[in-house]
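Quarterly update, task 2.4: pyridoxal-5'-phosphate-bound model.
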Amino acid sequence: MSEALNALLRAVPSIDELLRADDLKSLLADSGHALVAEVLREVVEGARAEVRREGEAARALLNTDALLRETHHRVTALLTPSLKRVFNLTGTVLHTNLGRAPLPAEAIAAMTEVAAGASNLEYELGSGRRGDRDVHVEPWICRLTGAEAATVVNNNAAAVLLVLNTLAKGREVLVSRGELVEIGGAFRIPDVMARAGARMVEVGTTNRTHRADFSNAMGARTAVLMKVHASNYAISGFTAAVPEGELAALAHGAELPFVVDLGSGTLIDLTQFGLPREPTVASTLASGADLVTFSGDKLLGGPQAGIIAGRRSLIARIKRNPLKRALRCDKMTLAALSAVLHLYADPARAVARVPTLRLLTRKADDIKAVAERVAPAMARALGERAVVEVKACHSQIGSGALPVDLLASFALSIHIPGRGGRALEQLARALRARPVPIIGRIADDALLLDLRTLDDEAGFTAQLAHFDWTATP
Ligand SMILES: *Cc1c(COP(=O)(O)O)cnc(C)c1O
C-alpha cells in the first residue's frame, strides 16, 4: 500500500470525534448513542476495508461527510418498520401475503382499548377468580352459528391441528381423496394430519367419492369422519361427493364425530348481497357436523384466528388439550374478534361495516367512478410514455373462498406502447417502491390496478406526487 493511502487511513477521525459532529446531534438524540456508535464503527471499518482493497478509487468513502451521511442513512433504515401498510390493488380482496382482512374501526378501537394496559382477559370480575379467555367470544360465536360451544386459536391451521390431535391421535381419520388440499403457505391436509398424530385414510377417487367408500373404510380404529372445503380449486365434470347430512348420519351411526374444515366459512348467507353461494357455519352445523373449523380473517373479515364451533362435549375435550394453551390467541385478537362478531348481530350492518364484506359487495359502477377520479393523476404522473385507461376487469375473493367466482370490477390499465415487458416490470417495481407501496398485477401487456379495494383515494394519489418511475432501476 502506498504512503499516500496509509496517510489517508491514519487521517480518518476517531469514532469519538465523529460522534461529536454537529451533523449527528439529532440522530443521536432520536436513536440513542449505542446504535449510532455501533453503526458508525461499521461504516468506518467498511470504508477502510474498501480503501485497502480498491486504493485511490475509494478515497471519497473516507471523507467525513460521506461517513456521517452513510451512518445517517443506515440508522434510519434500521429504525424504519419493515411491516407497513400497502395499497392492495391486485384484484384479490383477501390476499394472504398482503395481510388478508382489513379490520373495521370497531375492532381497531377494541384492540387499542386492551392493548395498553391490564384487562379482564382471564379474570371473572364477579367472583374475582381466574376465568376463561374464550368467554369474550364464545357466546357470540354460538349465537351466530347455532353451536353449543366454541373456542378460538391462532389460525384455522391451528384449529384443524388441535381438533385432529384431540379426537384422533393414534387413530384414523377418513377423508375423501378429492379433498386433500394444499392451501398456500404449506398447509397441506396430509401433513397436518401427520403432525396431529392421526393416520389419514383416503377414500374414494379424486373426482368421485361415494357413501360406500366411507362405510367400507370404517373400522375399529376410525376416530373421525372429515370433510375439507376444497378452498382454492374446483373439481368439475364427472364428479360426486357425499352430502354432509349423509356423512354425519354415517358417523353418528358408529358413534363417531363428523368434522368439517370449512376454511373460509361465512357467518351469513352472502347470496342475499349478490355474492356467490358459500356454505355458512350455521348450515354446516345444521346438516349434522359435530365440529366446524374456519378462519377469522377470511370471509368473516376479522383478525387472524381459527374458530372451532360445535358440540359442547367435544369442545370441552379440546379446551383440555395442552396444545390449546400453545395455540391460544392473545387479548388483541380476542378484542378485535369480539367487536367484529357484534357487527354480525345485524347482517346488513356487517356488510356495511366489515371492510371485507363492504369491498366484496362494492358495485362495479362505484369502482368505475373511483377509477375515473384517480386516472388523471396517474396519467400525469407517468407522462407521455404510458397510456392509462379505465378498463373493466374481474376481482377475486381470495384465500380459498369461492375460487372460481369472479366479481365484476374496474381497474386502471397501464400500457407502455412500443416497450417490452421490461418497462412494465420497471413501472410495477417503481410503484412498489413508493412510501406506501402500490401493488397491482401484470396481465396481457398491461399493469392492472384493480380499484375495488381502494378506499383512500387521496392517499393513493399522494403516492404519485414527484414520481419518476423511469428513475427506478
Ligand atoms: C385457509 C384454509 C386453512 C388454513 O387457515 P388459516 O387461517 O390460514 O390457518 C385450512 N383449511 C382450509 C380448507 C382453508 O381454506
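Highlight for this quarter: The radius of gyration is 28 Å.
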